[in-house]
Amino acid sequence: MSASSAFAPLILKRSRILPSFQCIRLRLNVCRKCFYRTNGGNFKFENRTFRSLKSRETLKIFPCRMLAGSVRTFSSEDQGDKAKVVEKESEKKKQLKSDDLLRILSLAKPEYKSLAGAIGLLFISSAVTMSVPFCMGKIIDIIYSTSQDTRQMVETLSYVCKILCGVFVLGGAANFGRVYLIQVSGQKVIKRLREKLFRAILRQETAFFDRTRTGELINRLSADTILVGKAVTDNVSDGLRAVAQSVAGVSMMFYVSPKLASIVLGIVPPVAIAVIMYGRYLRNITKRTQDSLAESTQVAEERISNIRTVRAFGQEMKEIESGGMMMTSAQISVGDLTSFLLYAGFVGISFGEVPAGSITAVVGPSGSGKSTLGSLLLRLYDPGKGQVIVGGHDVRTLSPDWLRGAVGTVHQEPILFSCSIADNIAYGANTGQQVTNDDILDAAVQANAYGFIKSFPNGFDTVVGERGQMLSGGQRQRIAIARAILKNPSILLLDEATSALDAESEHLVQEALERLMKGRTVITIAHRLSTIKNADNIVVLSDGQISEAGSYMELMAEPDGLFRKLVEKQTIAL
C-alpha cells in the first residue's frame, strides 16, 4: 500500500456500513490498519470504541503511530457533553484501578489454602520475633536481680535459654514454611498469569501487533509477570508481616511503658509521610524501569533476530556502545582497497576479473548457492573448504568491520528497525563516520524516498514500526537503498531488490538503484532473469559450481545452455 492510499482521508456517511450511526459524517485521517469493526456493529480505533454520535457531529481521529503528533479533536454543538465525557473517563480510570487490583488478587484464589497456611505461619514467626525483646528484658532483670543467689540465677537462666532455643527453632521452622508456601504459590500465580496473558495476546487483532513491538510483549510475559506474581504473594506476605509486627510492637511498647511509648511514637507521623512520599517516588521509578527494560528487551530481540543486517553493516560495536567512543583498526592498505575493487572470488570458483564499476550478475536455480556466495563475501560464514580471497588476502585475516564497511547490501526483504526513518538511514554509516541531517536528506533524495517521507506528519522522525511494517514494500526498499547510499561502499551486493514490488514501486526502486550503482563494483544475485540484461557479466551457478559465464547475449546464444533454459522457463511461467 502506498503512502497516498494508506493515509488518504476516509469519509464515511450514512449507509449500510454504519447501521448504528444516524446522519453523521465521520472523517478518518488514519492508516486503514488501525480501523476495524467490532462484532456489535460499533467501530474501534486503537481499543477505543465509539457507539453513537450527535447529529452533524464530526469526529477526527489520528490513531496511527505514523500520524504521531496529530491531535484527536471532537467538534460538537453541545460542548457540555465533552466535559461530561472527560469526567466519566476520570471516574472510569479510578474504577479500573480497583477492578484491576481485584483481578490481580483473583489470580491467587486457587492457592488460597497455601496462602492461608503461609499467613498462619507468618503470625507464628512474627510472634516469635516480637517475643525476643520481651525475653531479653526478662533475662536482664534476672541477671541484675538481688533477690536470688548465684546458683538459683544460673538455673533460672538455663531454663529461660532452653525455652528461647525452642521458641527460636519454632520460629525458624515457621518462617521456612512461610517462605516455601509463598514461593510455590507465587510461581503458580506467575505461570497462571503468563498463560492468560499469552492467550490474550494471541487473541488480539492484527492492528494490535502493528503498533506493539515484539520485545515489549516478551518483557510483559517475562519481567512484568514476575513483578505481578510477587505483588500478589511476596509483597502481600511482607506487608502482613510488617503490619503484624507493628501492631505487636506498639502493643508491647505500651504494655512495658505507656509514657515512653507515647514519646517515641511522636515521630511516627512525619516518618509515615516521608515513607508515603518515597513510596510514590519509588513507584514512578519502578514504572520507568519496567518501561526501559521493555525497550531494552525490544532492542535486543530485534538486533539478535536481525543479526545478519547488524553484521552486514558492521554495527556490532555501535549496538554494544551506542553513543560511545568506538575504536577501529585498519588492517588493509589503500592499495589493497583498490585491489578489492578488482577481485572477488573463491579458490576453485573463480569469477575471473571483475573490473571496477562493472556489474556482475549471479544466477542459477534454487539451492545452487547464490545467497551463500553473498554470505561468504560478507564473512557471515566461513567456507568449510577452500578460501575466499579479496585483494590477495584471505578474508579471515582481514578485519570484519573493515570488510563489511566496504560492502553495501540491499536485500529482497530489507530489515528496518523500530526507530525513526532518520535513524534507519543513519544505521548504514560506518563506525566512526559522522552523519549530519544533510547527509540523511541527500541519501533519501537519491533513493527516491524523500517524496513519501515528507508526506508523513513527523517526516524523518516517523517511527516505522517493528521490521518497518508501517511502510509499504517499496518504501522499505527505498529506505534500505538510502542506507546503502549513506554508507558509500566500494562493493555493492544486491539480492534481487525489486522482485517483490509492484510496477510503480519497482520503477522508483530501480531508478534509485541505478544511481547507487554508478562508479561501484556491483554483484547482483538475480532471481528474475529479465532484470540482468544490462549486466556486464553473468555467472550461472549449479550445485555450487560455475556452469556458465558470459554476457546476456552470449549465454542466450547457447541452445543447450543452463541460462537459456532458466530464461525460457521464466518466460513460459509469465
Automatic annotation (TrEMBL):
Main subcellular location of this protein, as a coarse class: membrane
Domain ABC transporter: from-to ranges: 332-568
Lipid bilayer topology: Multi-pass membrane protein
Gene Ontology CC: one annotated term: mitochondrial inner membrane
Residue ranges of the TM segments: 115-136, 157-176, 260-279
PROSITE patterns xref list: ABC_TM1F, ABC_TRANSPORTER_1, ABC_TRANSPORTER_2
Listed SMART domains: AAA
Superkingdom of origin organism: Eukaryota
Family annotation (Pfam families): ABC_membrane (PF00664), ABC_tran (PF00005)
Subcellular location field: Membrane
Keyword entries, A-Z: ATP-binding, Membrane, Nucleotide-binding, Transmembrane, Transmembrane helix
Domain (ABC transmembrane type-1): residue spans on this chain: 116-321
Gene Ontology biological-process entries: oligopeptide export from mitochondrion
GO MF term list: ABC-type oligopeptide transporter activity; ATP binding; ATP hydrolysis activity
Protein name: Uncharacterized protein
Originating organism: Pocillopora damicornis
